[in-house]
Each structure stands twice: as C-alpha cells, then as structure tokens.
User: Fold this.
Amino acid sequence: MTGNLPVLRAPPFPWADATVSVSGETGGTSADAASLFALVRDARVGGRFWAAPSGLVRPAGVVLKPRDPSEIDAMRCRDAVWILPSRNRRWSRKLIDEEWREDVDPWTVLPGAGRLVAHGDDEWIVLARTLGVPVEVLSSGRFGRPHDDDATLDRLAALALSGASWRDPFTGLASNVEAVVGLLATWRRSLDTNRAIVAACGMAWWKRKEIRRFLWHPGRSLAIVSSAMKALRIARKARRGGDGAVAIWPSRVSPALLAAADRDAVPLVRVEDGFVRSVGLGVDLVPPSSIVVDVSGIHFDPRTPSDLESILDDAEIAPPLIERAAMLRKAIISAGISKYSAETGLAILPARLPGKRLVLVPGQVEDDMSVLAGGGGLTSNLELVRRARTLEPDAEIWFRPHPDVDAGHRRGAVPDSEILKHADRIARGGGMAPLLDAVDAVHVLTSLTGFEALMRGREVTCHGTPFYAGWGLTRDLGEVPARRTRKLPLDALVAGVLILYPRYLDPVTGLPCPPEVLVGRMAARKATNRLRWIMPLRRWQGKLMGIFR
Assistant:
C-alpha cells in the first residue's frame, strides 16, 4: 500500500531531489474533476508508473488486489488478474488465474479492466476512476469505502489527485497540478523508451555521466561499455528474459556492429546531440545537456524513417503545444541562443553593403554523418559557396566556417583565398545567433543553422536534405523523401524539433527537464561546463592537428 504518499509523484531519481508533491496540503487546480481525470489519463501518470509493464496480451477482466492470503478464496473470480504484494511469496499459484508478484505499472493493467476489486487505501482506485473503470471497495480507506457509488469515488479520486502541495523540482518553488502532470508525462515518455536499453556503446568518456542520466531507469542497470560486441552480448542475454536494446552513438560504431545486431535481432537505439546542446562545443569536450534518442532511425539521415520524421508527419500538434513552441522560440531568440551557446555578439560583425540582399553560407564538417547521409553527394564547403553564388549572383554573401573545422579538429578547411572567389566576406568568431539576426537568407547543405534561421524568419535554401526540409518552409534543392507529406506552420515544426523529439538535462539539478528549463539556465548563464579544465588542452590539440593537416 502507499500510506500517505501523493498519488502524483516522481520516479526515484537517485542523484537529485525530484519531489513534485507533498500530501496533506492543497496546491489548488484550475481544472474540474473531469478535466483533471483527462489530464492524468492522457499522461498515464500517477502511482508507480515507472514499474514493470504487465505484459498482458489480452484485456484484463477483473483486477483483484488482495492484501493477505486469507482473502484469496473470497476474491476468487473467473477471468481475473491478481496483483499480489511481492512480500507474500508463499501464496498458492493454484488459486490464481494470472498474477504478478513484483511491481507492475497500473497503466498497463487498468485500461483494459472490466472491474477493480481493492481495499480503500489502494491508490489504484484513483487511477481506475480516471479511466471510468468500476471499482468494488473491500474496506474503508483513504480512497473509498464499501458501497461507495461512482460519484463518491470520483470525488475522492479528484481530491487525491489535487490535494497536495505542488513543487517545481528545478527551482524548489511552488507549482501547480497541470505543470506537475506535464513534467511527469515527460519523464514517463523517456522511461518507457529507456526500459529496454540495457547497454550502450560508442559513448565518449566525457559524456558518460550525462548519458547515464538521460538513459536512466529504476528497473534496470545500464552497462556503458567500450566493446560493441560486449554490448551485444549483454543485450542478447537480456532478451532471453524480455527486451534488450543497445544504445549507440552513430558516428562511433562500425558496420560490423550493425550487421551483428541485425543478425541477432538486437534493437539499436541511436543517440545523438540535441539541437540546443550546451554552453560549448562538443569538440572541446563539453558534455551535452540535450540529446535525441531515436528507436527507428536518426533525424540527419533522410534515407530511412526516423522518430522525428514520424512526429512531424503524423503526430497531433494541438494549438496549446503550438503556442508553447512559439513562446519557446521567442525565448531562444531573445536570449541569442544557438546550438552551443547563448551569445549576444560576434567578435567581428562586418558592415553589410547598403541595398544588397545579404546571404549567409555556413560551412560544415565535410565528413560529418549528416553531410554524408543527407548531402546528396555534395560534401565540399567550397562547392556549396560556389552554388550559392550561382543562385544569388547579385547578393552579398558571407561564409561562416564551422568552428570545429576552424579549431583544427575536423575536416573541411578551405583557404580563405578560395572562399573569397565566390563570397564577399568570411565571418568568424562569436555566436551564430547574432549573425542570423543580421542576414536576409541562408544557404545550407544540412546544417542546423538552417533551422535556426527559420526560427528567426529568414529564407532558407537547402542544397541537401536536412530534417527540416520538405515541410513547406524551405526552398528544397535536394531530394526530399516522399514520406514527408505534411505542410507545417513554423511553430508546429518547432514543437516537433525542440519539444517532442529531444531530451534535456537541467545543468543545475541534473534532472531530465523540459526545454524551457535549459533555455532559461543558458539565458541566465547558469549552464556551465563541468569539464572546463580540459578546454585549453583541446584548443592546443586543435592547433597542432591543423598544422599537420
């Protein structure tokens, strides 16, 4: 039983205080009982929603929750599912039609139930009533008494859901039930995916602390290993008892791993940097505060479907979510936030020529996976600038070298003299956001800069096929997959790309958070690099690599 615990509560994150509610005080809610039930029902939160799924392959008939062995005979029922306390391990299986002795997620049992039989202090009564499941109460308790009718049980359920003091775990300040349910829903989505991931490989050592938090689940341990074959062995062993998937960093795994996983039917989950990533460059070993976790593909490869593509083409993006995306977009622009930083100015911002259309061409790492997968065969930064000049003969063109390339760590450097045969200026230093504020249009291959330009209302021409191409917002010169059939308003695209697809970590508490929390921390300069001691060494390494190249 749950004692006096709030029905709406956080999973047991071991590294931070994730408390979102305290029973006994009323934080208030603007929702009536029906709206509150719908809110909780849609989010599938409440109770131990992070517990193991039931594994039911058919709708449950009657769900029976006895407290001790003496109740078994009285509660026997045909077509019943028994949920037994794990401590009672000597109960006779002969008396039970179907059972779980360990924790089970109530949301994998109750939606198919015809009736719940439970004691009045069992929180499953509350969740059953949010679903409209009839309840038979065996004894009086916090959530009901014998012979209570549906209206009474609904009133008690609504009180149980709303009767708490609500807390924002990122600030420690007061919150409300709507915000808490939204946060629990975010955590639920991540945990549902994380549950099957038993091993990870290809994760750089300096990212592993954050990766453990992004992929954490209380029901299993995560093995982060250097050997791909070891990861597959762990997954194969786990699959004998259920699901077992391996998380991989796409650029750090071999074709041999992909072939072995396919042969052994081990699911691979691709993990990559998110789109609002950190306060510094990954090449400087700045751990990510945002990643994407994709079970069907990866967003930068248009040759195969991805979770992001499915979201953008199929997901319901309701008006409240679009409004939220618009507010997030404005906050990002106001703070001058780009993928790696929150910058307010360029080191050198050239003066634009009066009366001229100003076009930005951002360089990329020429052997980056997004270029190889989505460039349509084009990889050269020099060729991209040349094509932009052909299409924009009268424009002023600025070229922005990729910072990893300029630092000497990655491939794609082009002599300035060659670039200036086609471009008017080379814009180096500072953040991307102020530069985007200054230009009229952007020509990209697959760079995220194109998406950041769209957010700021700039015209975007795509020479390759980035994830934001093909939705009616860009001029597309690359081949767009026929799968992308939907035309999206800008903030629907923002909702999919920045809210529904990625994951974020609060750099202060380390808890998984909504994007607004990370953006707020970055804007307030509260997002710092825990490995900043190594950055000077990486800068010197980059200079040496540049010399040798």
About this structure: The longest strand covers residues 268-273. The two ends are 66 Å apart (CA to CA). Residues 177-194 form the longest helix (18 residues). The CA atoms of residues 6 and 23 lie 5 Å apart.
